[in-house]
Design brief:
Elements: H1 2-14, E1 25-27, H2 32-36, H3 41-46, E2 47-50, E3 59-64, E4 68-80, H4 84-94, E5 102-116, E6 119-131, E7 138-149, H5 155-178
Parallel strand pairs: 1-4, 2-5, 3-5
Antiparallel strand pairs: 3-4, 5-6, 6-7
């Protein structure tokens, strides 16, 4: 009987089913995300987000710049509900960014960076190419690099800061587009 219990316990640990183990929590950027589902397919095709292959999974990334700046790490108990490029596209669609343009957004960086063990910030680096509504002419290109301190140096702080930062990104993109010459 003792051997059976030990075998069962080892098996549960091997597959990650400890009695107190918490399943990973899935996060998005907040309430605007649900509005995105209400927008038309046409609007979704007007905003395309591209990113390097490593950003197309749902893990929340961070770097310890003070200890190992070249090593990318991931939170084990918190993930995005979808990949950052997909969430960012939904955020832009929900906000109706670039309604008169077709947009190609290239996401370059989307991570939390620790300058010290108790000091972190989130970084979003992306570029936007605006094309005429009929997609025949590139109108302009703009690069954005945004940062925001995390309120807490952990996954919760990263998630909250990314929610705020993506709103800033939408606002800055809208401001930039509103300054473009009308076609």
């Amino acid at each position: 009987m003792k051997t059976l219990l030990i075998t069962l316990a080892v098996s549960l640990l091997a597959i990650g089913c400890t009695p107190n183990a918490r399943q990973p929590a899935a996060h998005d950027f907040g309430q605007n995300q649900s509005r995105a589902a209400l927008n038309s397919v046409e609007q979704k095709s007007a905003i395309n987000v591209d990113a390097p292959s490593w950003l197309w999974d749902n893990r929340i990334r961070y770097r310890l710049l003070f200890a190992a700046p070249s090593q990318v790490r991931f939170y084990g108990q918190d993930v995005w509900i979808a990949s950052p490029p997909e969430l960012f596209q939904q955020q832009m669609i929900a906000s109706r960014v670039g309604f008169n343009y077709r947009l190609l957004v290239k996401m370059l960086t989307f991570e939390q960076q620790f300058d010290a063990i108790d000091k972190a910030r989130v970084v979003l680096h992306f570029s936007v190419e605006a094309y005429s509504a009929d997609n025949t002419q590139k109108v302009a290109t703009q690069e954005f690099r945004l940062e925001q301190p995390s309120k807490t140096p952990d996954a919760k702080g990263a998630i909250s800061a990314f929610a705020d930062l993506t709103q800033q990104a939408v606002s800055k993109t809208q401001s930039w587009l509103s300054g473009l010459p009308k076609s």
